[in-house]
């Protein structure tokens, strides 16, 4: 069970990956499992202070207040599709189309590896 509140990132694979992500260009774009915040307990946006392509839970909730956000969230979730089956070609296409620089995944993907902590890998898209 996770604590109700925590002031810093846990010393975990996710925490180490997010610390590395904070060392990258603030303008970098990130692609991660749309449900990464549920899986790891914190969002990439909050933990790494970097923009992420889509965060399904939060972005869907924000979409209740703004139709444009709702439509963009739906379109991006559909664009990612089955994240576990994301191919290197599709990841590169998303990177080129949306200006994304990095992919965070537990999958082994045939892309240049930028950082790894345990099963978490960060790949370069450009």
Short structural summary:
The protein has 126 residues and is α/β, with parallel strands linked by helices. The protein contains six helices and five strands; from the N terminus they run αβααβαααβββ.
Describe it for me?
- The structure is a single chain.
- This protein is of the alpha/beta class and 126 residues long.
- The chain has one domain (13-124).
- The protein is 42% helix and 15% strand.
- The chain has six helices and five strands; from the N terminus they run αβααβαααβββ.
- It has a five-stranded mixed β-sheet with strand order 2-1-3-5-4, sandwiched between helices.
- A hairpin with a 2-residue loop joins strand 4 (113-117) and strand 5.
- Helix 4 (56-63) packs antiparallel against helix 5 (67-80).
- The longest helix is centred in the middle third of the chain and has 14 residues, at 67-80.
- The radius of gyration is 14 Å and the shape is globular.
- It starts with 12 loop residues before the first helix and ends with a strand.
């Amino acid at each position: 069970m996770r604590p109700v509140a925590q002031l810093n990132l846990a010393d975990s694979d996710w925490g180490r990956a997010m610390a590395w992500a904070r060392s990258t260009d603030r303008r970098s774009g990130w692609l991660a499992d749309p449900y990464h915040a549920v899986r790891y307990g914190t969002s990439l946006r909050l933990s790494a202070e970097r923009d992420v392509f889509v965060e399904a839970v939060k972005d869907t909730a924000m979409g209740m207040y703004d139709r444009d956000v709702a439509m963009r969230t739906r379109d991006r979730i559909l664009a990612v599709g089955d994240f576990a089956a994301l191919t290197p070609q599709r990841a590169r296409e998303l990177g080129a189309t949306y200006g994304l620089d990095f992919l965070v995944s537990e999958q082994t993907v045939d892309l240049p590896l930028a950082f790894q902590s345990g099963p978490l890998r960060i790949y370069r898209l450009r």
